[in-house]
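new request in #modeling-help
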Amino acid sequence: MKTIVLIKQVPDTETKVKVNPGETDINREGINLVLNPYDEFAAEEAIKIKEAKGGEVVVCTLGEKKAEEAIRTALAMGADRAIRLDGEAFAGSDNYATAKALAKAIEKEGDYDLILCGKQAVDDDSAQVGTLVAEMLGIPSASLVINCEVGDGSVTITREIEGGNQELEIAMPCLLTAQKGLNEPRYPSLPGIMKAKRKKLDVLSAGDLGLGADEAGAAGSKTAIKELSMPPERKAGQVFEGEPEEIVPKVAQLLREEAKVI
Amino acid sequence: MSFPLTEEQHMVQLMVREFARKEIEPVAARNDVESRFPTAIIDKMGGLGLMGMMVPAEYGGGGTTAVSYVLALQEIAYACAATAVTMSVNNLVCGPLLEYGTEEQKEKYLIPLASGETLGSFAITEPEAGSDAASVSTRAVLKGNKYIINGSKVFITNGGHAGTFIVIARLGDKPRHRGMSAFIVERGTPGFEIGPEEKKMGVRASSTVSLVFDDCAVPAENMLGGEGEGFKIAMTALDSGRIGISSQAIGIARAAFDEAIKYGSMRKQFGRALVRNQAIQWMIADAARDIEAAHLLALSAAMAKDRGESFTRQASISKLFSSEAAVRICYDALQIHGGYGYTKDFKVERLYRDARVTTIYEGTSEVQRIVIANNALK
Ligand SMILES: Cc1cc2nc3c(=O)[nH]c(=O)nc-3n(C[C@H](O)[C@H](O)[C@H](O)COP(=O)(O)OP(=O)(O)OC[C@H]3O[C@@H](n4cnc5c(N)ncnc54)[C@H](O)[C@@H]3O)c2cc1C
């Protein structure tokens, strides 16, 4: 059983994001980068499956050298080896170009049973890459997975849908995107961290994947970021003082006429 | 902080920070109020390799360096100083077992300690032997193939929950430090009584007890190191221990610093936030300076240890500086909180109490100054 886990390095969720006017990326100075929390669920699930059924777990990311720390985190948790896609050619990749590169790397790796990734990356929150990869590979996929049982040639999963859960049986190979609740990711232990240093990490370029100049990076992208801006600052709240009989009608009126929420 | 960490060190730091934030921080205040020992947390820390960080993985430890140890302990102490001292002392106990233990002793005692299955204590202090550690009077006498131990120890960290104790006792007739040896004593050995928990001012979720040995018979093979090596073993263990307490103090200081900034930015008097006053800014600047310096001193001691050099002097300097800085920083952080800081509703009240012990245990500030001066004057 071979599981490929797609991961991304993202700013720590406690980061206070800043945007410099006119720039199309956030200000990355002093930001702590971590493994995307939803990818932790994906990695944990893959490792649990390996522990139960044997086989191997390969993590794959498109990212700069810096992203190796996120890779090592997954390796320290118990993944076996890693692939990192890097090079000038990938600069400016959008979701489509990223998915294309990952799909190519997965095809090159071959022989997989399952692909797991987070339901979305918590930086750009687009929640597209996983499903795009599955489409490009021509395999079935399911998103927002909160339970996963690997059977013989298929997986039975539970996924979140509006107002309830859905249970599906999906033929392998397939791709699943992990939602919170799928499992409780382990912390990488110290011996795990030490071992991770020695695990195999291959770096592949667009050329290695057979991607043409117009298929990768900005040239291979369908979208481009025009502008980044901070959400408008929230106005200070209003405090109403007095007897409930007096203020409740006032508040109700404002909620109806000004805030238009009731 | 600007010191360049290796990828591995950074991963250790991030992992422990995350662990402390999620698992320790939410229960720290309650455990302090109720003096509740965090057994479940310590178990988890054992599983992660934190209870014997510098012990090689084949002996159940984390297999990492003193630098990583400094980083990890700071993160634990940032969330809970009591958990940090529990961890620090257990790591301290592992040191001499690794360095002086026989293969059998390592098998039997080090592996469970380093993997966190058993908790360890290190017992030197006695009612009449505090700063003057060479004056211990607990006595061991060889009878057949057993050492019979008589005497008592006080202020023994982890004692209420420990399974393995390293006990420093007098053996033979040589005076003071030349007449001391180290023994491994198991909990439950007949003649070995563990006293009630001390009611402490701070680090209240840690365990501190007295021990009484009344004709306690310990197998001869449980002597650690050679006869007369007890003082040396204790001092070597304390050198490493002081790096631990220094890191604990830095973690507490960092927490107080963050609390002070958080509160001082929110609280308005005279129409502006407290931190807009220069008097308050000076406190913050001094704290930032001391935290940075303390961190670098701790890393410098840890790096010397990792290189296999003698680090007695550096560990003393680091412990002296960090602990006194932590006390000052907590004092100022509480001052910035005004009356609110004097209540249990604010974390700074606990930090203030927790910081205080760091200038006392594992050698008081005065003892550190003696060590540093002796080194300078030799
Ligand atoms: C919470 C806690 C946990 C502890 N855990 C352990 C443990 O696990 N194992 C263990 O063995 N011990 C432990 N101790 C004991 C601790 O190490 C001692 O309290 C410490 O070494 C000081 O000894 P003392 O309390 O007897 O003070 P004393 O030695 O009586 O000192 C009292 C004061 O006099 C000063 N003083 C003493 N001699 C001199 C001198 N020559 N010159 C100048 N000033 C001097 C001291 O610095 C101090 O300020 C713990 C203590 C506490 C509070």
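bot summary: The interface with chain B takes residues 32, 34, 68-69, 72-73, 76, 187-191, 193-194, 196-197 of chain A (CB under 8 Å).
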